[in-house]
Sequence to fold (363 residues):
Amino acid sequence: MSVVIDVDRTSLATSRLNRTPARALSPGEVRLAIDAFALTSNNITYAVFGDGLKYWDFFPVGEGTWGRVPVWGFADVVESTIGDVAVGERVYGYLPMGDELIVSPGRVDARGFTDLSAHRAPMAAAYNRYAKVAADPTYRSDRESHQMVLWPLFMTSFMIDDYLGEKVLGNPSVTTVVLSSASSKTAIGAAFLLARREGIRVVGLTSPANADFVASLGCYHETVLYAKVEDGSASWPDGKAAYVDIAGNSSVTAGVHRIFEDDLVESTIVGGTHWDAPRVGVTLPGPQPSFFFAPTQIATRTKEWGREGLDERVGSAWNAFAGWTDGWLRYETTTGAQDVEALYQEMLAGRVDPRVGHVCRMK
Fold:
């Protein structure tokens, strides 16, 4: 018997534990026993943008409006019909919130394989690849929690910094980058990297509950409350700015645009941690917000730098970031399907401590 958490795509606060008998494998398939995965605000973003960006299509339920929120974690091969994927191998990749996943491996090499299941063929390659930990240069057994909680988010953070560096920050008149949802780990990773750029001030937007935490991190030059953005009382130094929207709160976005007007040179949508905020279409001064899709930037840099070149650049930044987080981030493990489902509800409601990285085990 396997168990997985299903979520109503039309009402994200409605979830269920779906238990089904484990089915026999077909030729070309491999059964992964899901050992552990992380649950972060990034997974809420996957759910919020699940229809538009097809996140619901990775692990389809095929029943009404039910869907499965993707997560990142580790799994072990417990049954295989493919010689190149051996029982006992441990892999890292994209998983459902459950205790097992059946995949159809292809493009198998020493470093991993790609799930070639037909329903995943249209998806971004970065989400379909499973890395064998034995050959993963970034893997450390004592940092599995770091990898689950931070690595997928840090890849997005790295690509945000890389994109802005290439497209925006080469303009010396751009002196400020503003990030919403400043307590989220994606924003923190981006702020950590951006703060290392000479001449760039990094401003974090956050709630009163998280303001002290955000200010304590040291990677934001300034912390501003959402209310001050919405009522227009927030102000920043002279110069042009870029806005990275991880909250997905339209009233905050409108406030940022009103404050900077034509001095805002970039408005990039990354996430939707404020999933329940009204999404009101309004005419905004400055640039039209555009969606940032990290796998597109990853594919671009892989083509330009090569896989090894990308790994070297990201790996160097990752080691610095992961070590830095040990000063403020602790990890907690939630065990058992019911408790993991309850944690999902807490994450959805925004009632989690940003100082905690959540690792989940269904069994």
